[in-house]
Automatic annotation (TrEMBL):
Main localisation: membrane
Membrane topology term: Lipid-anchor
The keyword Lipoprotein belongs to this UniProt entry's keyword annotation: yes
Record carries keyword Membrane: yes
Family per similarity comment: Belongs to the NlpA lipoprotein family.
Protein name: Methionine ABC transporter substrate-binding protein
Subcellular location: Membrane
CC per GO annotation: membrane
Residues of the signal peptide: 1-21
Pfam family, one: Lipoprotein_9
Keywords: Lipoprotein, Membrane, Palmitate, Signal
InterPro entries: Lipoprotein_NlpA
Entry superkingdom: Bacteria
Organism, as annotated: Corynebacterium phoceense
Amino acid sequence: MFLRRVLATTAAVAISATGLAACSSSDSSDSASGDNPTIKVGTTDASKKAWAAFEDEAKKEGFKVEIQNFSDYTTPNQALDQGALDTNNFQHLKFLSEYNKANGTDLVPIVATEIVPLALFWKDHDSLDGIEGQEIVIPNDSTNQGRAINVLVQADLVKLKKEGLITPAIADIDEGASKVKVTAVDAAQTPAAYGEGTPAIINNSFLDRAGIDPTTSVFQDDPNSEEAEPYINAFVVRAEDATNENITKLAEVWHSDAVQAAVSEDSKGTSVEVERTPEELKAIVDRLTEQL
């Protein structure tokens, strides 16, 4: 099995928050108010075409946008909470809920953007036919493991000991009632498993790096299902800016035709546009926070 050929590794990620404390919590909010505002937006993928399109469309609406790129997934929320940013767009609602819970922050989503489905890939196959009895490799990180297991639940390949878990673990799988064996490995190892013929759930970041066509999946989660709601991506602000009309209007530019065309190109057509009210987004975050 693939697992026997995987060497366990531990990666230490250094996170730099240099300069974040230099701005007070009011600095960015002031610049985002009034006419012709300058709005500072944080992300982790500023090189994508969607961000260039977003800047162009924002200018047409009278906004000056400063996009700041971060190399990790923690610093954009730190920068937002400390006032170095007005908003950020890089995370889904589950990640936001976990961050708020762990750090005692009150960051809130205001405009939904999209869901990027998480998918199962099986080399040289175009369906689930014949997959029963196979070992399936999934990422073992906290962000993707529970979602990956629920993908297999939706595919009717895995049964859980208790239904409805948002973030099930391997221990929650009822192996006797399931049709496949599930093995969790480092996310970076999932493309290698796929290359050796093992069915694997691979997130988009590693698909791109491995040159795997995202449209060749044999199954993916349903972006319209309740199970997918935690993975809605959104523009996020501090609680005091939840009703800031300038920031909200800017965030809504993401749904312009030009930006959506660029998002589709970036994701090779796999991203699904999502529009939810701030109230609906908050309700999802509240539900997730309560379940943590």
